[in-house]
Specification:
Elements (H helix, E strand, L loop, with lengths): L2 H9 L4 E4 L6 E6 L2 E7 L5 E6 L2 H10 L4 E3 L8 E6 L5 H18 L2 H9 L1
Antiparallel strand pairs: 1-2, 2-3, 3-4, 4-6, 5-6
Protein name: MmcQ/YjbR family DNA-binding protein
GO molecular function, one term: DNA binding
Pfam families: YjbR
């Protein structure tokens, strides 16, 4: 998967914005102001961090040891780094993006969840 496909999929989600708060090499995507993914624009192959349920994070790392690692520069319990070198299918990556987005939405305040719903 390339950065354009990754970015476009994320931006199609409700309430998502993008920015470069950590510098020009790290694209951050947020839902209602809360980060759900970071893509390292200077890495080849593309590397992205996605939030993940702690138990699922461990099982994914065990099942895909060459492509999924504890989140680089992130809370290792709650974030995974994925290497997008073509060994993980696009549909699987989309599923993990959805999971990260949904986790962040669940953690939003009721007020922000309502605002998101009304968009």
């Amino acid at each position: 998967m390339n950065i354009e496909t990754f970015r476009d999929y994320c931006l199609e989600k409700k309430g998502v914005t993008e920015g470069l708060p950590f510098g020009p090499d790290d694209l951050v995507l947020k839902v209602m102001g809360k980060m759900f993914t970071i893509a390292s624009l200077d890495e080849v192959p593309l590397r992205v961090n996605l939030k993940c349920d702690p138990e699922k994070a461990i099982s994914l790392r065990e099942e895909y040891p060459d492509n999924i690692f504890p989140g680089y520069h992130m809370n290792k319990k709650l974030w995974n780094t994925l290497i997008l070198d073509g060994r993980l299918s696009n549909s699987f990556i989309f599923e993990l993006i959805d999971h990260s987005y949904d986790l962040v939405v669940l953690g939003l305040t009721k007020k922000l969840q309502k605002e998101l719903q009304d968009l």
